Amino acid sequence: MKAPDPFDGTQAHNLRGFIQSCQLIFHNDPENFLSDRKKALYSTYILTGRAGKWIEPYFPNITSEEPSYILNNWMLFETQLFTPFGNPNEVRKDEQELENFRIKETGHVSLYISDFRSLMSRIGDWGKGITFMFIEEAWNQDCWTSWLLTHESLMASKNSWTSLWN
């Protein structure tokens, strides 16, 4: 698996892709990334430009074993990286997109599901309630008919729809 493209901190829209690429590397090679420390240190190696300069002040304490130290805590590292380099309006933009999310008249249900899952992965876990709300809304639209005919085995009950998002 190829290493993630370097992140230089100049384009906020690239940060999420950088983090996701790092996470794919971690999941693909779990033996080498057992600890948060290994994940954070690997990621710092790929930071360049402004982002590389941002992490430099943490290196003098690289031997610290404190769990709250940024290079020992992947979630803290990720959060701290988003603070200066992420788009502060990204979450709100995604929330607005979700609020207006509908199946287009000429759209396919499979595309709706794919787009919905992608959007939910960007927003985070809003719980099962939001998923059921969108299933209910989509269920009531005529465009499901053709999809249902080709996926009858999934339609034992309306509740089986949750398997599409899990």
TrEMBL record:
Residue stretches making up the Retrotransposon gag domain: 46-125
Pfam families: Retrotrans_gag
Protein name according to UniProt: Retrotransposon gag domain-containing protein
Organism: Austropuccinia psidii MF-1
Organism lineage: Eukaryota, Fungi, Dikarya, Basidiomycota, Pucciniomycotina
